[in-house]
Design a protein that fits this description.
two-stranded antiparallel sheet; 4 strands; 125 residues; 2 helices; single chain; alpha+beta; elongated
């Protein structure tokens, strides 16, 4: 049972208070949640959303964890944006908004060429 109620941001843009950052750091044992490196005194670190808000995460305390600034944070952000891009593309594809692939497999029914039994290629009529 928690002695303090969980912090939940009023909006997705609500900044995380210092007291919540401290609790997230303590809960993680001072370890970067991406690289697994122990954060030492003086090391620059941020609090990060484990599941990014753009990918369905929430701006709440249980979705926060410490992350080292620099390479680990940049890699995490890059992977979050790649996942967001992929999800958007798949959503457009399933809704019929994304145009079909223009690549046609040679010899398929959509191709203008067909292969005869002897191995010779000929143009479809």
């Amino acid at each position: 049972m928690r002695s303090v109620p969980e912090w939940i941001g009023a909006t997705d843009d609500t900044p995380v208070p210092a007291r919540v950052k401290e609790r997230a750091f303590t809960r993680a044992g001072g370890v970067c949640h991406v690289s697994g490196i122990k954060i030492r005194p003086g090391d620059p670190w941020d609090v990060d959303h484990v599941l990014a808000i753009c990918n369905g995460g929430q701006n709440r305390e249980r979705n926060l964890a410490p992350i080292l600034r620099g390479k680990p944070h940049k890699e995490k952000t890059r992977s979050d944006l790649a996942l967001k891009k992929k999800n958007a593309r798949l959503r457009r594809k399933h809704l019929g908004i994304e145009p079909p692939s223009r690549y046609v497999v040679p010899g398929s029914k959509r191709s203008r060429w067909r292969r005869r039994v002897g191995g010779k290629w000929e143009r479809r009529e």
